[in-house]
Write a structure and sequence with these properties.
Layout (H helix, E strand, L loop, with lengths): L1 H9 L3 H19 L35 H36 L3 H14 L3 H12 L3 H27 L3 H8 L4 H37 L11 H8 L8 H28 L8
Helix pairs in contact: 2-3, 2-10, 3-4, 3-6, 3-8, 4-6, 5-6, 5-8, 6-8, 7-8, 8-9, 8-10, 9-10
Length: 280
């Protein structure tokens, strides 16, 4: 039985392989754009506007004659940076709050969770729109808005997982050894939540990409001249019948990035959670 469980765990699932491949490609393009793009994203050539794919421009040009492939590459980089910082903000603030609520049940826990419930009641895009509309458009404000939504997500997840762990024998042993609640949370509770948090982070990363694209589409996220997939979709709708590929490329990029991250999250969950193992 143990050998079968070990063999099952060692075989990567299709979701993990496909999700990891798509995510690696997405991240690789974002990193590559730091060092090289076929053309500069500010290189305007009106004479070559709305051209179809050619040898010189693999994905054609936009309404200003800019290379679409270069715009997509830099747009991927901006999406990664926004999502990475926003999810990092959610993890950095949400997880400690969740651990705090689990370690000190009562008034502290209830207060934190009610504030989280209020924040969590609004969808991510609606929350981001309200915040950026109030404090102004821009990539920094978009990061703050998306990050604020991520805080209650990770706080609830950390609290729920920690409450179950506080009833385990190894935690009782740590308390009998004289360890305080803070030390137990850091040394014993948090390491046992790592796999769960990693899986959730991949899902929130995908949601952050969609939220950033939505905000940019509405003009509240990344501002020109910095490229953004959402901004490219907004600009493409004017030329939908003249050059429909301008809408297809960023839309496909968003779909593939989100699909890859969701499949990666599912694959990691199946890989890391022993309760989901299924014997043939």
């Amino acid at each position: 039985m143990a050998d079968k469980l070990s063999a099952k765990r060692q075989r990567p699932g299709a979701n993990l392989v496909l999700g990891g491949t798509l995510t690696s490609l997405f991240l690789g393009i974002a990193v590559l754009s730091l060092f090289w793009t076929p053309y500069g994203v500010a290189d305007i050539n009106i004479a070559n506007k709305l051209n179809p794919p050619t040898v010189g421009h693999w994905l054609g040009t936009d309404q200003f004659g800019r290379d679409v492939l270069s715009l997509l590459m830099v747009g991927a980089r901006n999406s990664v940076l926004v999502a990475l910082v926003a999810v990092g903000l959610g993890v950095g603030l949400g997880v400690p709050l969740g651990l705090l609520a689990a370690a000190w049940p009562g008034l502290v826990s209830e207060t934190l969770m009610r504030v989280n419930d209020f924040t969590f009641a609004f969808p991510v895009l609606l929350t981001a729109v309200m915040i950026t509309a109030a404090i102004g458009p821009g990539v920094v404000n978009a990061v703050i808005a998306i990050g604020i939504f991520n805080i209650p997500v990770f706080a609830r997840l950390a609290r729920g997982g920690a409450l179950g762990l506080w009833q385990r024998d190894f935690v009782r042993a740590a308390r009998l050894a004289g360890k305080g609640r803070t030390r137990i949370s850091v040394e014993h509770i948090l390491p046992n939540l790592t796999s769960m948090l990693i899986v959730q982070a991949t899902i929130q990363f995908a949601l952050a990409i969609v939220a950033e694209a939505g905000l940019s589409y509405l003009g509240l996220g990344t501002q020109p001249p910095n490229p953004s997939w959402g901004k490219m979709l907004n600009e493409a709708q004017t030329f939908l019948f003249l050059a429909p590929q301008l809408a297809v490329y960023p839309g496909l990029a968003i779909a593939m990035a989100v699909l890859g991250l969701n499949l990666l999250g599912d694959g990691l969950r199946d890989r890391l959670d022993p309760r989901l193992l299924r014997l043939p």
